[in-house]
Design a protein that fits this description.
By secondary structure, the protein is of the alpha/beta class. The protein contains 11 helices and 12 strands. The protein has a single domain, classed as Aldolase class I (TIM Barrel, Alpha-Beta Barrel), CATH 3.20.20.70. Helices cover 39% and strands 18% of the residues. The strands form 2 sheets. Strands 1-4-5-8-9-10-11-12 form an 8-stranded parallel β-barrel, surrounded by 9 helices. A two-stranded antiparallel ribbon has the order 6-7. Helix 5 links the parallel strand 8 (162-165) and strand 9 (189-196). Helix 2 (59-71) packs across helix 3 (99-110), helix 4 (141-158) crosses helix 5 and helix 7 (228-241) packs across helix 8. The longest helix has 18 residues, at 141-158.
Length: 330
């Protein structure tokens, strides 16, 4: 006999222990990557207004934050640079003495087992806020590629384990892979922001990094949010060019893209739980409208359930601590 009443799915939901025993998707801090914003100096820890609990950090403070993350079980960080100087080509991105490179060196010395990823893009470094070299008001794709490669090599020279191009220029993965290999950094992995959409969810990040474009927008090179098939083409091309892992960004409104990427490709798939997603949770929690821990648990579970292998999230440290104390639940 099959069906009701013989089959009762509620039997395995009856107690917390039973629910835990049969849970299909589990949260683990070693699958989180914590974004860190870094700038030159010492002892700097400036909270970002739109990202409560997230700071602009000097290299020494970034090391302290990474140590706290590591103690909580988060063994990976990704660095975004905030330069003191900008120009029209973003030359601080490949300055070996820049904040990102200095932080990488300190992190690899202090925490050799922490995976250090670096964002490869020019928007934080250009005076105009766009992700490449301008020709008039358009970003020149091919003129931008060697500059991205220079930035990636500089970060690899500092000790980065993974470089992560987020610019969405065509052909940048191949250009970076060729340059890394030519400079003797064949072991450095590439995490490609492959399906990165032109999203309204990036607002708080742009405040944090000072990277809002001075004119226009990025829809000419970031993906149209409506296009899932195109996202699969972007991922396929990046893998052909030598990407070791690929990313879908943002996460929450793009769970279908994460799921299809997981089903179609064998490479590791990352998702970025971006600044706007984090800020909305924090704002609602501050107003007492939601149970923050349960919401964070549900969001992260949903991203992993969709198929992400690891998640970049500003919730990383808190979520890891809540997992350790047993208070993060769905």
């Amino acid at each position: 006999m099959t069906g009701f009443p013989t089959i009762r799915l509620r039997r395995l939901r009856r107690t917390a222990a039973l629910r835990s025993l049969v849970r299909e998707t589990r949260l683990s801090p070693d699958r989180f990557v914590a974004p860190l914003f870094v700038r030159l100096g010492s002892g700097k820890r400036e909270e970002i207004t739109s990202l409560p609990g997230v700071f602009r950090l000097s290299p020494d403070e970034a090391v302290a934050e990474a140590q706290a993350l590591s103690a909580a079980g988060v063994k990976a960080v990704i660095l975004f640079g905030i330069p003191d100087r900008k120009d029209d080509i973003g030359s601080e991105a490949w300055n070996d003495a820049a904040a990102v490179q200095e932080t990488v060196r300190l992190l690899k010395k202090s925490l050799p087992d922490t995976v250090v990823m670096t964002d490869v893009c020019l928007d934080e470094y250009t005076s105009h806020g766009h992700c490449g070299v301008l020709r008039g008001t358009e970003v020149d794709n091919d003129a931008t590629l060697p500059l991205l490669a220079q930035a990636a090599v500089s970060q690899a020279r500092a000790g980065a384990d993974v470089v992560a191009p987020s610019d969405m220029m065509d052909g940048r993965v191949a250009a970076i892979r060729r340059s890394l290999d030519a400079e003797g950094f064949g072991e450095v992995a590439i995490l490609a922001y492959s399906a990165k959409c032109a999203s309204a969810f990036y607002g708080p990040f742009r405040e944090a990094a000072g990277s809002a474009p001075k004119f226009g927008d990025r829809r000419g090179y970031q993906m149209d949010p409506a296009n899932r098939r195109e996202a699969m083409r972007e991922i396929a091309l990046d893998l052909e060019e030598g990407a070791d892992a690929v990313m879908v960004k943002p996460a929450l409104a793009y769970l279908d893209v994460i799921r299809e990427a997981r089903e179609r490709f064998d490479a590791p798939v990352a998702a970025y739980n971006v600044s706007g997603e984090y800020a909305m949770v924090k704002a609602a929690a501050a107003n007492g409208w939601i149970d923050e821990k349960r919401i964070v648990g549900e969001i992260l579970t949903g991203i992993f359930r969709a198929g992400a292998d690891f998640v970049l999230t500003y919730h990383a440290r808190e979520a890891a601590e809540w997992i350790a104390e047993g208070s993060l639940s769905v």
